[in-house]
Amino acid sequence: MQRFGEKLRALRTAHGSTLQQLAAEFGYATHAYISELESGKKVPTAALVLKVARRFNVSTDVLLRDEMDLDLR
């Protein structure tokens, strides 16, 4: 799960979302938590992993398993 933040950033930027937009969409008052997730300083909750998977239409396996890469095509 070391790569979750890297994958979140890749998905967010590929879909043209800012940190602020994604934070608001997920119900956070500021973008700080999303930023800390992307930089690897925080570990996501199970609920957030599910929100990210649904929002970007990817499996939770891809998000959580470091050996799996994103397919951004």
Question: What does this entry look like structurally?
Answer:
This protein is mostly helical. The chain has a single domain (4-64), classed as lambda repressor-like DNA-binding domains (434 Repressor (Amino-terminal Domain)). Helix content is 56%, strand content 0%. It contains 5 helices and no strands. It starts with a helix and ends in a 9-residue tail after the last helix.
SSE order in H/E notation?
Answer: HHHHH
| Helix vs. strand class | mainly alpha
Mean pLDDT, to the nearest integer, reads 95
Report the principal-axis shape: globular
Helices and strands, with pairings:
Blueprint: H1 4-14, H2 19-25, H3 32-38, H4 46-56, H5 60-64
Task: Name some characteristics of this structure.
0% strand, single chain, 73 residues, 434 Repressor (Amino-terminal Domain), mainly alpha
Give the structure's gist in a few sentences.
The chain has five helices and no strands. It has 73 residues and is mainly alpha-helical. The protein has one domain: 434 Repressor (Amino-terminal Domain).
